[in-house]
Specification:
Layout (H helix, E strand, L loop, with lengths): L2 H6 L1 E5 L29 E6 L16 H10 L4 E3 L5 E3 L2 E7 L4 E6 L12 H11 L16 E8 L4 E6 L6 H4 L24 E7 L3 E6 L12 E6 L2 H10 L4 E2 L4 H7 L5 E6 L4 E6 L9 H10 L2 H8 L4 E3 L22 H10 L6 E6 L6 H13 L4 E6 L5 H4 L6 E6 L4 H8 L14 H11 L4 H18 L2 E7 L1 E6 L2 E2 L18 E2 L1
Length: 514
């Protein structure tokens, strides 16, 4: 132990011994008759996700698509994952502790084994993190969230303990290690086409835009998977619906509310819904006309008929949003009043800004279910305030990247993640996915200061002030909180109704076939 750590000591022991095996069906009951089926071994499960074509990757540190995330989750693991309440839970790290300032963290590793038989050790963690933050490969998605990691001062303390040092305090650090693209690979990992992880499934084959096949890893530390073989397939929304209804797949991810209504009328498919666990929004770029004018941003928020958008676009499968990410999550300001619709005031503000009778372009794409429909319906609502909203459709394959630079207003969707992670990724001056161009140095500094506070109550209060600032002055018009919908064959058990980006979402080692 270093002299400094010897003086200060470590605080805040955390991390459970693991997550218990899932034995329920996740939809609130078992098969017909109400008696839960007993888990059985064997069989093949085919899970179908929205595809990304040639953009799909096996590199676990270069990912953004749900289909990539599902494949990587099957083969690899992280030190930390997120539980259903979006708080960190232990995975490859069995526990962690920090010093008095939350600048130095120690993680104790599990007795886990890679698929090639090598034991997980601290050097694997250090190598993985150095690979993630390597500035020579900017497409590695966790670089910004782990930017304060000081690897020169981080070290292994024996084979099963790793000490990670930050350049500035961060009481949320374990949650950052649960973010997208933070999987642990073998020390010296070079070829993503030959993946070797510690996950519940071994790699067999992969074809971008089509499928990955993996087999059960019998030495998995958290009990071997119940199914013998896993296929993760790529398909568009209609093909996913046809596959799960026609028996060509047992699991279909991210389904539409329209499909859910149809499927629930039959007996072959069951819909598992994580209630209000995602966010749909319109995002306005605050640094370009007309949304550089705060009156225009407020007018657009006031003209939105959120309930109508939820009823039509989401077919009622969701809740009304309140122009802020993370409703119901830790740190969300619960005392925030709901913004209502006021067309007359919106019309007055738009006229004052000189926009009466003018046309504004909204940039959208079929990149996510409901984007185009929401933009089209919102255009009708904005017209009530005397402004024309022209709907322009881009490429769904490149929309997430295009939206960073194109258009003054567009669609945005986010899955579940801790609120500080959302701020880090999307609301700081140098955030990689800052689609609203919200760049406020004072906000950045205040967020860094809040994140350093080790008292959860004090930290929560500071986060609340920052979120209210974003809601009042920022460019996020969060109109709806859609249910996250998954369709499974009636013979599939063990699928939980949990938010996306959490440990038990798409976790196929705990499902079984009746």
């Amino acid at each position: 132990m270093s002299e400094a750590l010897g003086r200060r000591g470590f605080l805040g022991m955390a991390g459970a011994a693991g997550v218990a095996a899932i034995t329920g069906c996740g939809a609130g009951g078992g098969p017909a008759g109400g008696v839960a089926a007993q888990p059985r071994q064997g069989g093949r499960l085919r899970a179908v996700y929205a595809g990304g074509g040639a953009k799909e990757v096996l590199d676990p540190h270069v990912q953004s698509l749900f289909v990539d995330i599902a494949r990587h989750k099957a083969i690899y693991e992280k030190l930390v994952e997120l539980g259903p309440d979006l708080r960190p839970v232990a995975r490859l790290a069995s526990k962690w502790e920090h010093d008095a300032t939350a600048t130095t963290w120690r993680f104790t590793l599990r007795d886990a084994t890679f698929h090639d038989g090598a034991k997980l050790v601290a050097d694997d963690v250090l190598f993985s993190l150095s690979r993630i933050v390597d500035p020579a490969v900017p497409e590695r998605v966790a670089q910004s969230s782990l930017a304060t990691l000081d690897l020169k001062r981080s070290r292994a303390i024996g084979p099963a303990t790793v000490e990670l040092v930050l350049t500035r305090p961060n009481a949320e650090f374990p949650a950052l290690l649960a973010g997208i693209g933070t999987q642990i690979v073998r020390d010296g990992f070079k070829d993503p086409a030959k993946p070797v992880g510690t996950g519940a499934f071994r790699y067999v084959s992969f074809e971008a835009g089509r499928s990955m096949v993996a087999s059960r890893y019998d030495e998995y530390w958290d009990e071997p998977a119940r199914i013998e073989e896993l296929h993760i397939l790529s398909a568009d929304s209609e093909a996913r619906a046809n596959a799960v209804q026609g028996g060509q797949a047992e699991y279909a991810n991210d389904m539409t509310a329209t499909f859910a209504r149809t499927a629930e009328a039959g007996k072959t498919v069951r819909v598992v819904a994580a209630k209000a666990s995602t966010m749909q929004a319109f995002v306005m770029k605050v640094d370009r006309p007309p949304f550089d004018n705060p009156d225009v941003r407020l007018a657009f928020k006031l003209v939105a008929d959120r309930q109508r958008l939820v009823d039509v676009v989401l077919a009622g499968r969701g809740e009304v949003g309140n122009d802020l990410f993370g409703k119901g999550y830790q740190y969300y300001p619960a005392d925030l009043p709901q913004l209502g619709r006021d067309v007359d005031r919106a019309k007055s503000l738009l006229a004052k800004a000189g926009l009466a009778g003018k046309e504004i372009e909204i940039f959208t794409a079929d990149a996510s279910a409901g984007f185009v429909e929401a933009a089209t319906l919102f255009a009708e609502q904005v017209a009530e305030a005397g402004v024309r909203l022209k709907v322009t459709t881009g490429s769904p394959q490149t929309y997430a990247k295009d939206l960073l630079t194109k258009g003054a207003i567009g669609n945005h969707r986010s899955g579940a993640m801790p609120i500080p992670q959302y701020v880090t990724d999307r609301l700081l001056s140098h955030s990689p996915f800052n689609v609203t161009h919200w760049r406020r140095p004072a906000f950045d500094a205040a967020f860094a200061a809040a994140r350093a506070v080790t008292s959860e109550d004090e930290r929560s209060a500071k986060y609340g002030v920052l979120q209210k600032t974003v809601r009042a002055e920022g460019g996020i018009l969060a109109w709806g909180l859609p249910d996250y919908l998954i369709a499974v064959s009636a013979k599939v058990q063990g699928v939980q109704a949990v938010p996306p980006n959490t440990l038990d979402q798409g976790r196929f080692d705990k499902v079984w076939l009746t």
